[in-house]
């Protein structure tokens, strides 16, 4: 009887007892090139289908919390916008992160495409909010109120810019901008 391989020495001269352990060779799995799964391939915007679903789920949860808290605050005769802000706070690390950190991490990851998309939407929303607030003030404001608003807006832009420029001049060694050698 022929064996595939043996381990250890034979105990006696008998061929049947020469093999202590026979290693049975398993047939090798056919090597196939990996086929990409559609849900993991990036789309034209750079996000995978799973990331897109996570983004839409995060947006749905944000909208539900904001509208729900806004409705609740409206029923309590409070400004609904305050309820919407409270709804956003409840989804942050103060409540959702404390109660269910895994759910918060799944909905709002710390980095990646979902975070980048949420950040871009946040920036766009903030821009639109400022635009609408300014447009509303412009309609209501009279002559004297417009002048006061212009002074406050100019001071809000000029003072921080001047302070930043002054600090950059005073502390050039800590500036992240590298200057070209002269």
From TrEMBL:
* Major subcellular site: membrane
Lipid bilayer topology = Multi-pass membrane protein
InterPro entries, per this entry? Cation/H_exchanger_TM (IPR006153), CPA2_transporter (IPR050794), Na+/solute_symporter_sf (IPR038770)
**Where does the record place the region Disordered?**
1-38
TM annotation in the entry: 53-74, 81-100, 120-139, 151-173
The protein's location, in the record's own words, is:
Membrane
Question: Which residues are in the Cation/H+ exchanger transmembrane domain?
Answer: 66-170
Tell me which domain of life the UniProt entry assigns to the organism this sequence originates from: Bacteria
* Annotated Low complexity bias: 28-38
Which keywords appear in this protein's UniProt record, sorted alphabetically? Ion transport, Membrane, Transmembrane, Transmembrane helix, Transport
Annotated protein name in UniProt = Cation:proton antiporter
Q: What is the source species?
A: Streptomyces caledonius
The lineage, from the top, is: Bacteria, Bacillati, Actinomycetota, Actinomycetes, Kitasatosporales
């Amino acid at each position: 009887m022929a064996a595939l391989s043996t381990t250890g020495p034979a105990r006696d001269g008998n061929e049947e007892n020469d093999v202590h352990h026979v290693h049975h060779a398993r047939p090798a799995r056919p090597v196939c090139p990996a086929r990409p799964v559609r849900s993991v391939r990036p789309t034209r915007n750079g996000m995978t289908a799973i990331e897109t679903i996570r983004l839409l789920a995060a947006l749905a949860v944000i909208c539900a919390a904001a509208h729900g808290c806004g409705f609740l605050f409206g029923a309590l005769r409070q400004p609904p916008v305050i309820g919407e802000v409270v709804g956003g706070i409840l989804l942050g690390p103060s409540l959702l992160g404390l109660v269910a950190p895994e759910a918060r991490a799944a909905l709002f990851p710390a980095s990646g495409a979902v975070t980048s998309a949420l950040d871009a939407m946040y920036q766009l929303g903030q821009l639109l909010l400022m635009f609408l607030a300014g447009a509303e003030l412009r309609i209501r404001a009279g002559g004297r109120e417009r002048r006061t608003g212009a002074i406050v807006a100019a001071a809000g832009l000029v003072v921080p810019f001047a302070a930043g420029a002054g600090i950059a001049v005073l502390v050039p060694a800590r500036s992240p901008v590298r200057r070209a050698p002269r």
